[in-house]
Amino acid sequence: PLSDPWWSDAVVYQIYPRSFCDSNGDGVGDLQGIISKLDYVADLGVDVVWLSPIYASPQDDNGYDIADYEEIDPLFGTMGDFEELVAGLHRRGLKLVMDLVVNHTSDEHAWFQSSRDPQSPKREWYHWRPAREGFEPGTPGAEPTNWGSFFGGSAWAYDEASGEYYLHLFSRKQPDLNWENPEVREAVYAMMNRWVERGVDGFRMDVINLISKTMPLADGHQRPGEPYSFEVERVANGPRMVEFLEEMNAAVGIDARQLFTVGEMVMCTAEQARIYTSRAHPRLGMVFTFEHMSLDQGPGSKFELKPLHLPDLKTNLAHWQEQLGEEGWNSLYFENHDQPRVVSRFGDDSPEHRVAAAKAWATVLHLHRGTPYVYQGQEIGMTNAGFTRIKQYRDIESLNYFADATAAGVPEQTVLAGLALKSRDNARTPIPWGAGPQGGFTRGTPWLPLNANADTVNVQAALAASDGVRAHYQRLIALRHELEVIQKGRFDLLLPEDPKLWVFTRTLTSEQVLVVANMSAHLASVPVQQLPDLRDAELLLGGSGADIQTLEPWEARVYLVR
Ligand code: ISL
User: Among 47, 60, 73, 206, which one carries the catalytic annotation?
Assistant: First the structure.
């Protein structure tokens, strides 16, 4: 068998720089702010820090629209600050993973600026197409294909200067690079190599399974009543996906240098993920799936929700555990900068249950097999933003959705209710470091309002609570480092259909860990006869250790059964 990669016992902490800590009072978090909090991060016990984009950018999509891959955006600091950050992390034994956004650039990137000229050698670096046959360019219906953009409207923008359209699966300021062109791929690999030389230990690859599209770009199926097509097979997981990943792996020396990689993969199944993460081939370390994040989605847009049916989530994660068990590797996450806070979304953010619910969700996630991710603020049980007015939002996806939906006649209150549950800004509110003005995040005006509960849910309070959410994360992370069975043990789901209890075992030779969690705000009775014999078991985490027949609301226990 192949040897285990270094990240098989690692835990990752994601920093969203603009919301982490502001050192210069401009209201936006920055690199010096991060540097000032490195002891806090290291003290949590994590092994890796993943930084969301800090490159030069017009910030149309908060840095996921990059204008220069080689520069740090002045909003965040300088290359000198970056070097200081790398040194500070490495001195503490932490690795640094950078966001790699190469499905698209900003429209302000020099490559795209040059590409707008039809005679330019860079014309083929992006997807330029003439208007649909028989249509006047720039008129409704003239777009080259019927594809929709993830951020609303058509995925094609008309460029009057050349009379052609360019493809943008995200905002019109994020034109898609043409990965069919070998010059594009070489430029990206060279850029990645330069970041490795600057000291980074790996990459989180933004929407990486969109880089190979099915050529030629052509109309997809349109659901009745929908203005655009979102046919997965046309835009994602194209025929050259594996080839591109292997080429990148070789060109950047990803396996040779043991670089950490995680590919964000929209619309990717466990079966596909196994191919991408198979240890038998030099591709990716792991992927971020979206399947478990879509289980509370209704039939319409991502903002039209239905309640989560717990068995759906348990069995989905179990399926990924099984599919990627021996051959691939899983990432484990409930939160990031695009998703609402888990304690509000699936848990209970009332003052009565918030702490227990946040701990229960942490326990179940961290006891699965894979690499767990902690998103900044998750470790103190931060809740959703609680915004009630459109003026409070900044996220381009949220603002576009509000404009499109209200224009289509959806009542404003309905749209706002959807945003309150699902907007990406829910997880982007600034970190409250204490109870003072602006939570100590900034001495200026924060770019996004802080949560209304920042005076109670803040880092200072979390550090003081020996039985709080943060202390719980510390224990979970330490347990993973200590126990091989948590890193490598086989996963088995018990009671899959139980609507309240989440029960599973992890097994490595004679060692077994049992997790029993009540994922509800009510008492739950546990069918003890259906669990492993707990007579000689040691309680590792949670509960009083007494009677396990009845669990308190959101009580989660971890036993070591020998
Ligand atoms: O789910 C989504 C589509 O409705 C979005 O939240 C998100 O755009 C998608 O998950 C892909 O995310 C990544 O690429 C985007 C960027 O806006 C996100 O922040 C990033 O994580 C485009 O670069």
Answer: 206
Ligand 1 pocket member 333 (CB < 6 A): no
Options 73, 264, 348, 395, the catalytic residue: 264
**Ligand 1 in contact with 288 (CB < 6 A)?**
no
End-to-end CA distance of the chain: 26
Among 216, 214, 117, 127, which Cα is nearest to 177's?
Answer: 127
Expressed in angstroms and rounded, the spacing between residue 338 Cα and the centre of ligand 1 is 6
Q: What is the ipTM of this complex?
A: 0.96
**Close Cβ partners of 295 (under 8 Å, ≥ 6 residues apart):** 308, 309, 312, 313, 316
- Contact present, 505 and 540 (Cβ < 8 Å): no
What is the rounded CA–CA span in Å between residue 227 and residue 51? Answer: 36
CA of 92 to the centre of ligand 1 (A): 31
Q: Is the pLDDT of residue 543 over 80?
A: no
Is the pLDDT reported for residue 18 higher than 90?
yes
| Tens digit of each residue's pLDDT (9 = 90 or more) over 51-64 | 999 999 999 999 99
**Total residue length of the chain:** 562
Q: Which atom of ligand 1 is nearest to the CA of 293?
A: 1
Distance CA 103, CA 236 (A): 11
Domains of the chain: 8-104+182-472 (3.20.20.80), 105-176 (3.90.400.10), 490-561 (2.60.40.1180)
Is 545 a residue whose pLDDT tops 60? no
Cα angle, residue 12 at apex, residues 11 and 17 outer, rounded to 5°: 155
Helix (H) or strand (E) holding 501: strand 501-508
CA angle 375, 382, 26 (to 5 degrees): 75
E strands, 376-436, are none
Percent of the chain scored above 70 by pLDDT? 99
pLDDT at 3 over 80: no
pLDDT of 544 strictly over 80: no
